[in-house]
Design a protein that fits this description.
Layout: E1 6-11, H1 15-30, E2 34-36, E3 44-49, H2 54-70, E4 75-80, H3 81-85, H4 87-91, E5 98-100, H5 108-116, E6 144-147, E7 149-150, H6 161-165, E8 169-170, H7 173-186, E9 190-194, E10 202-203, E11 206-207, H8 208-216, E12 223-226, H9 236-239, E13 250-252, H10 260-266, H11 272-285, E14 290-297, H12 304-317, E15 321-326, H13 344-367, E16 373-381, E17 387-390, E18 396-399, E19 409-419, E20 423-431
Parallel strand pairs: 1-2, 1-3, 3-4, 4-5, 6-9, 9-12, 13-14, 14-15, 18-20
Antiparallel strand pairs: 7-8, 10-11, 16-17, 16-19, 17-18, 19-20
Helix pairs in contact: 12-13
């Protein structure tokens, strides 16, 4: 008697990993696998790992052990950036059956099928292709992630991504357009453009600005969000695209440090002053724009003066949200060999200082929405019958009305801020459907 196989997924790290997991899960579902929760007993566990920090490595290793404890007879496939960075080491781990690097990640289903068919499996014999993921008609999210680019050529001194993701490579624009047409036809109302270094997109006559402009002209009732990007190369010409009703007024642009000296040591491709100028231009052109960022504290040689320059920059710019990272040594990077490594306690204290400042700024920014409206895409219905989702500025919203439908736009008047895990906008629908 046929027994349907089960598969469980765990994703760590960036939106690019989320996109790739969504695509893999959809492929498994089409081959009649039943996707189950990662904490359930499954025939197969797929762990899409991250290695950007030591903490990421620890989380990835912890999830590998979770899968092994949950079902020691299950098959575990480890893929993603940690699988690329520590492939030989992971292949010696008895809790792992197969290690699939990023280049071969599209072959995870083929590896699993070959295993269950009793074949001898050599991952390297499968095709290496960064962009051959099929559009996912069902994902773990209401937003559809669209991969447009992979890899990076910037080689920041702290970053291991060029090693584990390779050199910058762009996806053909027609493939991107077709991917978006398909997911819009599936019913998705929001697409998120994702990659390692989006601003360096280049294929034929298309740069990133021209690509986004063409995407906005595609037919359909959907909105477009740009995921994390680097702050170099953007102009008023690019920022004008945010006048388009489909493009959401939110960007996550990585500052990393407000110190010119530290940015130079990081080998970042911009200055603190140019970042501030860009942020001011963006907010002048589009009042209320939600600019979010990443900040690294405790980079080698960062003095109290350097750190204060970062705090001053954060306050001058006024971010809607900040991801704070304590500098983490990555083997093989230039920063690993730099003198004046910062003690962990100092990094922790600086991280906490940024976090407190960021929390205050987040609350101040979100307070500005009270009395205004947001076009909210409902993501889920809460247990009490109300709904939650995100407005166009990528700020969470709870809607008090009942009877609303997921994956539907509603125009909502924001009445106040409520605190759940973070400051959340709350209000009521003013037009039943937008």
């Amino acid at each position: 008697m046929y027994k349907q196989k089960t598969v469980a997924f765990k994703t760590l790290g960036c939106r690019l990993n989320l996109y790739e997991t969504d695509a893999l899960a959809s492929e498994f579902a089409k081959q009649n696998y039943r996707v189950v929760d990662f904490n359930e007993k499954a025939d197969l566990y797929v762990i899409n790992t991250c290695t950007v920090t030591n903490q990421s490595d620890q989380k990835s290793r912890r999830e590998i052990q979770v899968a092994h404890r949950t079902n020691q007879e299950g098959v575990t496939i480890v893929t993603g950036c940690m699988a690329t960075n520590y492939k030989e080491q992971l292949e010696k781990n008895n809790a792992i059956n197969y290690v699939v690097d990023n280049d071969h990640k599209t072959s995870v289903l083929s590896v699993a099928e070959a295993h269950f068919n009793g074949e001898l499996v050599d991952v390297n014999n499968f095709e290496a292709n960064l962009f051959s993921y099929a559009p996912a008609d069902e994902t773990f999210h209401t937003r559809s992630l669209i991969k447009i680019q992979d890899g990076c050529d910037n080689f920041c001194t702290f970053c291991i991504i060029p090693k584990v993701r390779g050199r910058a490579t762009s996806r053909p624009p027609e493939e991107i357009f077709e991917n978006i047409r398909q997911v819009v036809a599936f019913g998705y109302k929001e697409v998120v453009l994702t990659g390692v270094n989006l601003g360096r997109y280049s294929y034929g006559d298309y740069d990133f600005e021209k690509l986004v402009e063409a995407i906005l002209d595609l037919p359909g009732d959907f909105r477009v969000r740009i995921s994390s990007i680097e702050p170099d190369g953007y102009t008023d010409s690019f920022f004008r695209l945010f006048n388009h009703p489909k493009l959401t007024p939110h960007l996550h642009i990585c500052l990393q440090s407000g110190s010119e000296e530290i940015l130079l040591k990081m080998r970042r491709m911009y200055t603190a002053s140019s970042f501030k100028k860009m942020a001011n231009q963006l907010k002048t052109l589009h009042p209320g724009f939600n600019l979010t960022t990443d900040v690294i504290v405790g980079f080698p040689g960062e003095t109290e003066t350097h750190f204060q320059e970062t705090l001053d920059a954060i306050q001058d710019i006024g971010f809607g949200h900040i991801h704070t990272f304590k500098y983490s040594i990555r083997k093989g990077t230039r920063a690993e060999r730099m003198p004046e490594q910062i003690p962990g306690k100092i990094k922790t204290n600086r991280s906490e200082t940024v976090r407190r400042l960021a929390d205050d700024m987040k609350r101040t920014y979100r307070d500005t929405f009270v009395g205004k409206t947001q076009r909210v895409l409902v993501e889920k219905i809460l247990p009490d019958g109300t709904a939650s989702g995100f407005g166009e500025h990528y700020v969470p919203v709870v809607i008090y009305d009942s009877g609303l439908k997921p994956n539907t736009f509603y125009k909502v008047e924001i009445q106040h801020i409520m605190n759940i895990e973070e400051p959340t906008l709350a209000g009521k629908v003013i037009l039943q459907r937008d």
